[in-house]
Design brief:
The structure is a single chain. With 46 residues, this protein is of the alpha+beta class. It has one domain. The chain is 17% helix and 33% strand. The chain has a three-stranded antiparallel β-sheet. It is elongated and about 40 Å long.
Length: 46
């Protein structure tokens, strides 16, 4: 399955079902990078 980089912030694996539904998967090997990006303390409130 192809891995896609989200503008250098994190990676996801995209899986299309019947060319209609997109599932973005985060296996344990790439989930930590996503969790760091999504944590509120890593974003300014400005």
């Amino acid at each position: 399955m192809p891995r896609y980089n989200r503008q250098g912030f994190f990676e996801v694996i995209e899986f299309w079902v019947e060319n209609r539904v997109l599932l973005e998967l985060l296996p344990p090997t790439i989930a930590p990078q996503y969790l760091v990006f999504m944590h509120p303390r890593n974003h300014s409130s400005q």
